[in-house]
Design a protein that fits this description.
The chain is an alpha/beta fold and 296 residues long. It has helices at 21-30, 52-56, 61-81, 101-109, 133-142, 147-165, 191-207, 216-219, 229-235, 255-264, 287-293, and strands spanning 2-4, 33-41, 87-94, 116-119, 123-124, 127-128, 169-170, 210-213, 240-242, 269-276, 279-286. This is Histidinol-phosphatase.
């Protein structure tokens, strides 16, 4: 069965995605998804963390929290409406900009309507590392002026996030390489960084977490999805989740390429989240079944 554990809509992530939440769900159904997670970005806790287009639009933090509550209400409505056609999980993408985001993430996750959250890092020393080259350069400068230092700071922030939040799903594990000078360089070729990568992967395994296999990197010019080949090989056997996000146009974008990527790694089985009487469960799905049920 085809599935995705990571999605966004323009309705609740304006400027970051497109289309209504309902349109995204309808497209997921049309593309053969059996399970689809709704994971809009969580609200932030400081206006200093707003993105440039949000500042230009005059956004305020209070609006972000109102928007989150509206999202949860709409997600609950749509989960019920489409229950006969697709299993909808309700979640959000957690942010780890600073340590003080921990309590906010856990507070939002305590909502009984929320099934899970994705643990993600998009910032290094408070600067976005996947937004544009200029802001990435600020993150590098704040990390001692070297990309190696920025990579290390990223994986240290991720390590802190993993230990505090213990997410069921870890988002785009090596997002840091998106705007790097050598973005397709394998991380195991950089010893100091690779040590931190392996440390973080061990934590994910110990916590029983899942790494998503996120095809957005392909859409943005990377040669491999997140995580890259070396990371996947190190994590082999522990499964992952597939990714589709940013509105109707991107639901399932490069899904086939992500499946082929996993086939090339020798993966035969992947893991997804589902609902059962006792709550959220982790279940295995054969990659062959995922490939057969997805509609291009």
């Amino acid at each position: 069965m085809a599935f995705s554990m990571h999605s966004h809509s323009g309705q609740f992530c304006p400027g970051h995605a497109q289309d209504t939440l309902e349109a995204v769900i309808q497209t997921a159904i049309a593309r053969g998804m059996h399970t689809f997670a709704l994971t809009e970005h969580m609200p932030r806790n400081s206006e200093a963390d707003l993105y440039p287009e949000e500042i230009s639009a005059g956004d305020k933090i209070d609006h972000h929290h109102t928007n989150h509550h509206a999202y949860i209400a709409e997600a609950v409505r749509l989960r019920s409406k489409y229950a006969e056609e697709i299993t909808i999980l309700i979640g959000f993408e957690g942010e780890w900009i600073r340590g003080d985001y921990g309590p906010l993430v856990l507070q939002l996750a305590a909502d009984p309507a929320v099934d899970f959250f994705i643990g993600s890092v998009h910032h290094v020393h408070g600067h976005p590392i996947d937004y544009n080259v200029a802001l990435y350069a600020k993150a590098v400068a704040a990390s001692g002026g070297t990309e190696e230092g920025c990579y290390e700071a990223y994986f240290d922030a991720q390590f802190e996030m993993l230990n505090v939040l213990k997410p069921r799903v870890v988002g785009h594990f090596d997002l840091i390489r998106l705007l790097a000078t050598q973005k397709d360089k394998q991380l195991d070729s950089m010893p100091g960084i690779w040590e931190k990568v392996l440390r973080n992967l061990r934590v994910v395994v110990e916590q029983g977490g899942l790494l998503e296999v996120n095809s957005a990197g392909l859409r943005k010019g990377l040669k491999e999805p997140y995580p890259g080949r070396a990371v996947c090989e190190a994590f082999m056997g522990d499964g992952g989740t597939f990714h589709a996000d940013h509105g109707v146009a991107q639901v399932g974008t490069n899904y086939g390429r992500a499946v082929a990527y996993l086939e090339g790694l020798g993966v035969e089985e992947v893991w997804t989240l589902g609902k059962a009487e006792g709550g959220l469960v982790v279940k295995s799905v054969s990659l062959a079944d995922v490939k057969a049920t997805f509609k291009e």
